[in-house]
Amino acid sequence: MQQDIISLNEKIAGESVLVRNLIAGIGEVIVGQQAMIERLLIGLFTNGHILIEGVPGLAKTLTVSTLASAISAGFRRIQFTPDLLPADLVGTLIFNQKTGEFTPKKGPVFTNFILADEINRAPAKVQSALLECMQEHQVTIGGTTYPLEDPFMVLATQNPIEQEGTYPLPEAQIDRFMLKVLVSYPSKDEEYAIMERFTGKPPADVQPMLTIDQLLHMRQVVDTIYMDEKMKRYILDIVFATRNPSEYGLESLSGLIEFGVSPRASIYLTKASKAHAFLKGRGYVIPEDVKVIGPDVLRHRIILTYEAEAEEKTTDDIIKQIFEHVKVP
């Protein structure tokens, strides 16, 4: 077993060269935001959708479009607005007067990567149409089902400040997002670099560095990352601590959590931990991988009580306590 892990580690180290080049290429345009870039790549290598939340001007849209430019794949940006219709997203039937028949006109979701900009501005019908795309990787137009491209990934952004003219995403849809990434302000040095880069000569466009075949191969490589039985049990302990905190010595959280995370959290945390190990050039998962990526997998799945809101507790506060108390293997 140890020899297998050593050989796997060497294989991963060789594969990660392409990943480092990809990150460097994105870094030619994007200043800082290393955590957001890493999490976008984790979603990319595990076939998971990502929700990015942050105030305007933090390069959320630019980062996603730059990543798409670095991959030889289809990319569409959809600006979600209150007047958007499901047909604007998935397509509709068009009547052909010459033939007297209805023919399907496919919408912008028929591509590899979708940037759903300000996703919470679209009404419920649009969210329902997108939910089928995200979960089933298919679209129904006029009673006929059409498969979407492979790979297919939704990268959604939302602004946490404005509430007027927005529609909170239903819990069922939020649960379909593998990660919820919170984007913070850049440091002073990073913002200086941003000023220098975007007030002079515009940065060169990123050239495609990753093909669809290479991406699918990397997904297979990530699946082979070794995870010990103890690490799997560690993930289960974290997940179950959100559902039954008192069983893990966290009685103080019992009145703060309305609902714990779903089984998708166990699946996504396992996949994301493997992908994080891959980004770090390792062929095996360590507790640090779970701790680093854990908040992004869990924060949008824990539903707090009114008591927690009254005490101004956030899901990140709860997650921090859980990781501090659950025994590390």
What is shown here, in short?
This protein has 329 residues and is of the alpha/beta class. It contains 13 helices and 13 strands. The chain has helices spanning 2-27, 34-46, 60-69, 86-90, 124-136, 171-174, 188-198, 212-223, 229-243, 263-279, 287-298, 306-310, 315-325, and strands at residues 49-53, 71-72, 75-79, 91-96, 101-106, 113-117, 138-141, 144-147, 153-158, 177-182, 210-211, 257-259, 303-304.
Structural notes for this entry:
With 329 residues, the protein is an alpha/beta fold. The chain folds into two domains: 25-219, 3-Layer(aba) Sandwich (Rossmann fold); 225-325, Orthogonal Bundle (Helicase, Ruva Protein, domain 3), CATH 1.10.8.80. 47% of the residues lie in helices and 17% in strands. The strands form five sheets. The chain has a five-stranded parallel β-sheet. It has a two-stranded parallel sheet with strand order 2-11. A two-stranded antiparallel ribbon has the order 4-5. β4 (91-96) and β5 (101-106) form a beta hairpin. The chain is globular.
Structural class: alpha/beta
3D shape: globular
| Helical coverage, percent range | 40-55%
CATH fold category name of the largest domain = Rossmann fold
Low-confidence stretches: none
Count of DSSP E strands? 13
Largest beta sheet: strand ordering: 3-6-9-1-10
CATH class of the largest domain, named: Alpha Beta
Strand content: 15-25%
**Secondary-structure element string:** HHEHEEHEEEHEEEHEHEHHEHHEHH
Distance between the termini: 19 Å
Summarize model confidence as the mean pLDDT. 85
Radius of gyration: 21 Å
CATH homologous superfamily identity of the largest domain: P-loop containing nucleotide triphosphate hydrolases
How would you characterize the largest beta sheet?
5 strands, parallel
| CATH architecture assignment name of the largest domain | 3-Layer(aba) Sandwich
Helix count, DSSP H or I runs of 4 or more residues? 13
Number of domains: 2
